[in-house]
Write a structure and sequence with these properties.
Blueprint (H helix, E strand, L loop, with lengths): L2 E5 L2 E4 L4 E8 L6 E8 L6 E6 L6 E3 L7 E5 L5 E6 L8 E9 L14 E2 L3 E6 L1
Parallel strand pairs: 2-11
Antiparallel strand pairs: 1-3, 3-8, 4-5, 4-9, 5-6, 7-8, 9-10, 9-11
């Protein structure tokens, strides 16, 4: 069964950093684009970043460009989201998701992803 597990969330002060991990269980991510999404209380789940399955193409939401970096490990088992210069408005539950294909592109549309992790809480204090 295809499972994704997020980790690395926590409480950090404004300006701090966290690195989130998205680990695949029971499969490799070779053929999957991976997206990171977040959902703050009372708000819709929004796309943060994504990476294509094979070419390493990435996309970022405007709100995180220059602060967040998405990457894969060489074994393509784990995808990371390095978050720097965190702001209180980055506080949310962060989810990773997998979408089959998307070799040379990725999208941050929730409807494109059909495998989701359970989420990890990120809280940024001011």
């Amino acid at each position: 069964q295809l499972q994704l597990v997020e980790s690395g969330g926590g409480l950090v002060q404004s300006g701090g950093s966290l690195r989130l991990s998205c680990a695949a269980s029971g499969f490799t991510l070779n053929y999957y684009a991976i997206g990171w999404f977040r959902q703050a209380p009372g708000k819709e789940r929004e796309g943060v970043s994504c990476i294509s399955s094979s070419s390493g193409i990435t996309n970022y939401a405007d709100s995180v460009k220059g602060r967040f970096t998405i990457s894969r490990d060489s074994a393509k088992i784990t995808v990371y989201l390095q978050m720097n210069s965190l702001k209180p408005e980055d506080t949310a539950v962060y989810y990773c998701a997998a979408a089959w294909g998307f070799r040379n592109m990725c999208v941050m549309s929730r409807d494109s992803y059909n495998h989701w992790g359970q989420g990890t809480q990120v809280t940024v204090s001011s």
